[in-house]
Amino acid sequence: MSKPQDFDAKAYWSATLRLLVITLVIWFVVSFGAGILFRDALDGIHLGGYPLGFWFAQQGSIFVFVGLIFWYARRMDKIDREHDVHEE
User: Fold this and answer.
1) How many domains does the chain have?
2) What is the span of the domain harbouring residue 26?
């Protein structure tokens, strides 16, 4: 695959790193934050009969992670298309 002459590697890498940092922050807040740090505050809310902090620690984070995978793939595809390095 040949790259176009006007390909800006620095802009592409910057957009990719920005997306990666956002994804990791969401991952951290959901896994460590909701399951551990904010558990006491979230336990006042119940979802399906279980405290929300417990729910996030057990299965809620898994749902968020699966959604995060699809969101990341869509956003990365958009970045690839914006910088004209996408695959057909």
Assistant:
1) 1
2) 9-81
